[in-house]
Structures
1.
Amino acid sequence: MSGNCFGKLFQITTWGESHGEAVGVVIDGCPPKIPLDEAIVQEMLDRRRPGGASTSTSRKESDTARILSGVFENKTTGTPIMIMVENKDAKSGAYKSIADLYRPGHGDITYQKKYGIRDWRGGGRASARETVGRVAAGAVANAVLNQNNIDVFSFTKALGSTIAEDFDRNAINQNMFLAADLNAAKMMEKEVVEVKKMGDSLGGIVEVRALNVPTGLGEPVFDKLDADLAKALMSIGAVKGVEIGAGFEAAKLRGSQNNDPITPEGFASNNAGGILAGISNGDEIIVRVAVKPIPSIAIEQDTIDIHNKPQKISIKGRHDISAIPRINVVCEAMVNLVIVDHLMRQKVLQSKRDD
Amino acid sequence: MSGNCFGKLFQITTWGESHGEAVGVVIDGCPPKIPLDEAIVQEMLDRRRPGGASTSTSRKESDTARILSGVFENKTTGTPIMIMVENKDAKSGAYKSIADLYRPGHGDITYQKKYGIRDWRGGGRASARETVGRVAAGAVANAVLNQNNIDVFSFTKALGSTIAEDFDRNAINQNMFLAADLNAAKMMEKEVVEVKKMGDSLGGIVEVRALNVPTGLGEPVFDKLDADLAKALMSIGAVKGVEIGAGFEAAKLRGSQNNDPITPEGFASNNAGGILAGISNGDEIIVRVAVKPIPSIAIEQDTIDIHNKPQKISIKGRHDISAIPRINVVCEAMVNLVIVDHLMRQKVLQSKRDD
Amino acid sequence: MSGNCFGKLFQITTWGESHGEAVGVVIDGCPPKIPLDEAIVQEMLDRRRPGGASTSTSRKESDTARILSGVFENKTTGTPIMIMVENKDAKSGAYKSIADLYRPGHGDITYQKKYGIRDWRGGGRASARETVGRVAAGAVANAVLNQNNIDVFSFTKALGSTIAEDFDRNAINQNMFLAADLNAAKMMEKEVVEVKKMGDSLGGIVEVRALNVPTGLGEPVFDKLDADLAKALMSIGAVKGVEIGAGFEAAKLRGSQNNDPITPEGFASNNAGGILAGISNGDEIIVRVAVKPIPSIAIEQDTIDIHNKPQKISIKGRHDISAIPRINVVCEAMVNLVIVDHLMRQKVLQSKRDD
Amino acid sequence: MSGNCFGKLFQITTWGESHGEAVGVVIDGCPPKIPLDEAIVQEMLDRRRPGGASTSTSRKESDTARILSGVFENKTTGTPIMIMVENKDAKSGAYKSIADLYRPGHGDITYQKKYGIRDWRGGGRASARETVGRVAAGAVANAVLNQNNIDVFSFTKALGSTIAEDFDRNAINQNMFLAADLNAAKMMEKEVVEVKKMGDSLGGIVEVRALNVPTGLGEPVFDKLDADLAKALMSIGAVKGVEIGAGFEAAKLRGSQNNDPITPEGFASNNAGGILAGISNGDEIIVRVAVKPIPSIAIEQDTIDIHNKPQKISIKGRHDISAIPRINVVCEAMVNLVIVDHLMRQKVLQSKRDD
């Protein structure tokens, strides 16, 4: 029950630090006989690897996934699946100069105060590198979702001040920002260039959607599907907000506007984001997260050192300009994990029903 | 691990349906020797009782709390605390006419499809009446927080289209909408009158703040303080979004704007909402939730019945115009529960530290 | 996760003290649409009520079960089931004289040292009265097992020095000691009379068997079926040992004697007690528990008071001579709970299998 | 919550199969700043390595432990600790001939029926090799116990028909059977030689004791210290029974004999085995387990194949004659894990107490 486990039936435990020997995950509870090999995991991992977009760090990690247990003859066996990625391009030297400084917007100060000790190399456990384990597990979850015909995908809804109004799923992989809107992508590129020049960074909004999710997933009153999605997504480093369906906009609507009328063919609108009373309603699941700008910036900032002395800091390492778009696949992985977990939880009830 | 338990060390299980015999909660893990009696619970329960504001239902429940275990000579004993409130003014007759209809925006349809059976009286388990258990537990959590000098409070940030820009904590209990801004409260009153006349309903935004939360609460990488707050709040019936600190606004800021500079006296700003890398940083915890408009409206809506036939529905029961302000104390209770749980989790580590 | 919850999918939380207002249980995770009413619960509760056998206390509790939630029109709804029994014949006065004394063999001293406070009336939470909640939950579990054709029963294997060698299931309800051997029952009666005269008490051995348990229940490597049975049974107040199948006798056997040969028709013997590698093998589940003698005896004993002063104590309340046979139904209830929990856990996997 | 996790605050997840690439464990919740390096883990692991006693297999594994996360500059950081041991001397070829046979007394048949698939190489996940992860975690738990001055040790109480009556702690490491009685050890040697010749195997009894365990550990009513010990030990492959203190003998005693009198200096006897009402009483914790004989024997046995056809089987691999004494350190590791978990759980309460 410690903080590095997630999920109830499809339960994962991630481990590893940014500049330790390796990062990885143990998946306990994956159903048996699911087709799985390292290539399936690698494909999803490759989507979070640095270097893909102009917003990303130049750290070069091949991030090769090794499955060390739980798979026999390319099928899961129902036993724990351990997946590991070695850290190869970790350059801790670059961090030595700031080992005694608390970087603003980072967990340096809170980790130190919580644990009384911290691995300062590359942010240690608080590094985004921890998400390697999440994505590897998300790939396994996806293998289970595939068997249930469930389709989860993500895209960039906003980057900095640029909001993508259009939605064209085909566009997502045609631009490096993973926007579903090619015009918006062009404006994002402009904004990135400008911000990079200033030594600053950008936030944005990621949207994740899930298609073909069966009705009935979610366990009221606390483990509601939206509650677990909120936790899953808010647990990602840079995320500061989560909303379902109409989300914060719903606060401004009247009941007559916000309610989704029900017809024999389904819901006439989807302000609910596919979830009613915490249970999937058969419609598309829609969730958005607010991503804060990367805190590591070249612009000089005020901070303190571990002796509580005021200091100036300017961070010059290999840092992303924005967590977007590398964070998108992490959000998607977390949604995969929540849905597969609830799919399994619902199976318990279904097998008991005679209707 | 089923869906009606919340918390890891301070763990609650709520039970009961809107029109069943009673609703209540069992609290397992409350520390011993905390001063507690029924009056303490009653005081917080009274804040969620209907009838307080012009937005609220006319259902009259005295909601008298009885503590049936876990307290001896007005102190907790470390054993489970069971608190129960009987349902007295439940008028199920009013619901019989809609027993076969799925109310739009409600859990009727999803409960039926999930469980294959539902207690349709008053919304059953999906009713806001379930939150009686949450608030009773929140009162006990608050008794523990009091001993740690932690102060949690809530207020209405927005109701419908009215946003409260000012913040005056004293104002909160001087207006029936629990806004921290008396001018905004007046405008809210106007909007409510108008909407009521139309048979429609309103949503809004609730903000919860926690003062004096010690540094170090939160358990990365999944049980981060913000992740658990997000889950806790999103698990409340009408909530569609949760944000921490600058929240969705942070998505638009640059790193240089969003980062909170660190000084020897503390943080120079609080965009982080008191949480860095999922761990409390000693600053004020700030969280906001988006509350959707009450789905029960007099205005006629399209829906279906349990035989999948199209129907019209117009809901005329004793319903609130808005979940606000009755939901505010529920939000506060959930924040209490998360903080006390993490306070206890952190004690485990602290007792091991020599610094 | 605090200590008063048991089970993973069929999860119970018991609450209440011996002389508090009531004792009870919340069951979270019971499948929907299971036929259930108060009579079903009452029938099992009546089996643990004092007064049945000459070994039992004269405390007279009608122990009337009330179901306050989770059941609608005599069927479970999938929401939490709260069952409560009021304490009516609690005579705390009798305990006042020993409020400052630690009774040998009881939890008085350990509760005081653990929590720094204790409800000394009637043993408080450490009283066997807590098992009311377990048995009520066991009755609900049994309702689920019935639907799966699983049959769990218990009997007295030994009382004091009398060991029941024969096994006749029909005999169990034909003698007040619930032995499956009427001759042994007669000898037990003799031993009880003699011990009662001396103001002393007796222990014994209870055996529980489960028929028609499907192959495949149990979740290696920690939540093995036998491991969860061991925990469930050892968590009962007076139990000091648990063994499966041949149990401690297996330690003396050779592999060639202990192994159960496998034939196309099933296992040729059952030293395994129906469990191999922690997973049910389709054979009869057999488990035995060692029950210590009731610690409350009239014979004078050495002890200390809460000020650490030496004292003499002689306990004269309304006490059982032996926890047997009232404990038998408690053991059975715990086995019910473990099996139903694992039945549900296995459903998760089965629904994924195509063979 | 799946079956490969153990513990609540000090939580471990083991992973790996006998002939997979590696076996290991993730420890989530280890307190920070505990001195730890690979040598500490290796020392405990070496005690379970084959080859130490005449009862053991000739499989030669160096079993070199690697710590891949959670430790920085030889101290734990409070983040997950991953420890891994590669499988190097796995000879799966030897198992191919029995891939289609269910070995009596083994989990082959139950794993196949539960999961519909199994890694048959060397017993897969059901192999005793899985305990490498338990022992590695037990070594880390021991590092925490050391800081609390708690001393856990184990010894062989019986092997086959030989019972060790004497107790001399110094003797334990002076004989290859780890008996606390050198005379008994000699008789054990004789019995082993004889049984080996016959191609048969032996069971026995292991006792674990814990000294200096503080009063107050254990969380009634389900997570009692003895209940968690019972589960922990019964989850070990070959264990068929667990008893605390007087255990099954207590069933035969009278209350006046079994009760431990309390004096100002402590308990006058220890039939309780250091646990009262599920809470440690400050006395020595004493627990014994019944170990069944190794099921892999050269003597021919009846069994079936995966097509349900009758077959003969005679197992000639590199097998131990008895799980004892290699299992002793595994029992010790499980006791370490339970005690450290409860030590941490009790810290939560202590920090709240003012007495």
2.
Amino acid sequence: MRRNVHIGSLGIGPSYPVRVESMLKTPLSVDRELWLREIDDLAAAGCELVRVAFPDMALGEQLVSLVKDSRIPVMADIHFNFALAMASIEAGCPAIRINPGNMGSREKLQNFAAFARKHGVVVRVGSNSGSIPESKIREADMDEAAALADSVGDQVRLLQETGLEDIIISAKSTSPRVTARANEFLARDYDHPLHIGITESGYGERGIVKSACGLSLLLGKGIGDTIRVSLTEPSINEVRIGRLILQSLEIRRSYPDLVSCPGCGRRRVDVQDLVRLIEPALDRLPPDLTVAVMGCEVNGPGEAAHADIGVAGTATGAVVFSRGKVLQRCSLEDTGKAVIAVFESLAEEISGSGKGEPLR
Amino acid sequence: MRRNVHIGSLGIGPSYPVRVESMLKTPLSVDRELWLREIDDLAAAGCELVRVAFPDMALGEQLVSLVKDSRIPVMADIHFNFALAMASIEAGCPAIRINPGNMGSREKLQNFAAFARKHGVVVRVGSNSGSIPESKIREADMDEAAALADSVGDQVRLLQETGLEDIIISAKSTSPRVTARANEFLARDYDHPLHIGITESGYGERGIVKSACGLSLLLGKGIGDTIRVSLTEPSINEVRIGRLILQSLEIRRSYPDLVSCPGCGRRRVDVQDLVRLIEPALDRLPPDLTVAVMGCEVNGPGEAAHADIGVAGTATGAVVFSRGKVLQRCSLEDTGKAVIAVFESLAEEISGSGKGEPLR
């Protein structure tokens, strides 16, 4: 049985939903308003933990401010520096990512671990395939996935030797297959929660497909406690795609359930066009709703009488209905707005049925 | 061991690459030029088999013409009608999708099967979860995946009883999990090639993520001989996403391998911006190429000396190089065009190294 860890009040591990993470793309060195806005947007999109690079002691005040103002827990990302790792804890970060082999000495690592334990800080360790020495792969005659898992194992043992227990581990590669195999080794050999993701998966369709494929290989086997989709895109896209992946795999529901009729001779509107028109509105509704999109007013509201909110095409636009009752008529262009308006007027009545977890 | 089938010269099964299919969105009833263009575009994008709805005997001539002019094999899609099934074979279709329970009678099914065998026609059968009677699920006390697989099994047995052997089977649901489990049952129980996909997966990010997740659950276990990504989008997008899924899972390579440097203080250009600028060109290059995108001219061409084609940022734009030698300077905006020009000038020399399979 894998363990749980707690980053502040955020539980990560087998007792909790798979978490969705991202990383701040705005550097701490720029205007505070900019990264505050990014963190707010991330939190609103459903991000539950945000990692931030802390590369310079001169940015200590900014880190303190970020930790204080962020609505979600902040994990400091430290590459090589003992002093930065200690400063992150002092700044109040509830989680830190380090490379325990880069803390300078065993003694410093021991000091860091003691300080982390004292403050209840969760430490993430792990490797990317890019950072594994070729020599390691050759020497051990290992394949890339085994070498990656082995390299992560070295870090985990270094940290375990300090007595620290609240550890998250990760092994990432640009290859979904290599990432999947490496994490299968880690899930077999360690009981710490696993952070999973595909590094440098790119942007747009390439990045989305690569991430969805790689994460599915693992999540389909029940491996992975917290995910990050790394895209060369605004960070909120990482969160949205991450949540869509969890929703597609029926692991976690973040968006309303959408049902639509297949369309027939009676339809007054292309059902697929109608879905497109209301999709932006869909994302603003709580995930426990069922939303129906039907081709015609004659049968639509009746057939979709179970829907919390429904839309059906008419000769001149659309009607919005709720549990079988038509509530509003509108033009096609205004369907999205009308759906939101109907939802708001009915919010207390139709929301909170407890099937999902409201995000916003 | 699963069997192979052959649709004309297109092999499908364990001895062949996983095939990429789509379905013609232009109805046969509209102008011939339109569906010819769609099929040409599909073939150019890497579609290997195209399904087309044949709902009406009045469209017989159009089907003959389509089969004759298409560069890729055509599978006729017949829902309920014995006469249409027979007419599709007469029209020269090398493959037909039918529901053997809907051919009118055992005798008609037998006649159809004999005619199909005589013409070497491959027959696909299968169910979508939407078409399984609720009663079947309740009666048998089965979960949805088992009921889906069972319903497909009924069809396969009907067809097997006719002596027909060249069968492709499919079980699709809107749920990736249900689709995956149903196909695991089918892979265990039957030795016919499996066509896999998620029905009505939607459009845009939702559809792409759902399809990538669902197909990964199966392809990751080695299940699936031919795929269709069903998107509410132009059919060539289905092919592109299908091929990206196979590429991401390292099952089949359709696009050049892209390597890029992580960027450093010396970079003259944002490497990710540069990747975006050349991506449209990337898709026009053969898949056996390695393309490098590097941040600076100082180290780029040398570090990426193994790349067939590379691009590096300069103070005023970019350089395009091949195997370490700078060949052309250009503005950033013209990088894509310059990559294609360099490729064309070197095509004989750098292509055809045999690592991949050229598509276009």
